[in-house]
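step: validate -> pass
step: tokenize input -> pass
step: predict -> running
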Amino acid sequence: MVTADGWLAAYYSDESERAAHDQKLVQVRTRDGVHWSEPEDLIAYEGDRFVRPGMVGVRRMPDGSFFMVYEVCNNDLLRLCGVYWRTSPDGWDWGDPADIGTQVITVHDRYPRHTPTITIADGAVVLASEMLVEADGRHAPATAPR
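step: predict -> pass
step: emit ->
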């Protein structure tokens, strides 16, 4: 993603600090595509080290802000790998890495799970994920195994 100030940024899952974080999300940036910054934490949960944020996706909104979506596994066994989001004014400053973000919940208390991806259509965020579950963790009717 190109940030508001023109840097090329990459966001990815990192398992290099397994003693502290089984997995975390990090970001790096470059001006020339050759020399990259040191990784900086995006989401690094400080509670249970087995909580795994991953599958990050970022899109620029029509107003110039940035929207990030990702899954978080092992923090809620009822809605395992729920989808979370956060925003940034510039594509680089995303807030406190220890803050896990806001979980996506529909108006009917359903939760998307696993492998989120987003696009922007007519100024709205459109989210797709592997499945949708009810508040109790059961598959929602549209995604129930057949």
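step: describe -> The first strand starts at residue 8 and ends at 14.
step: cleanup -> pass
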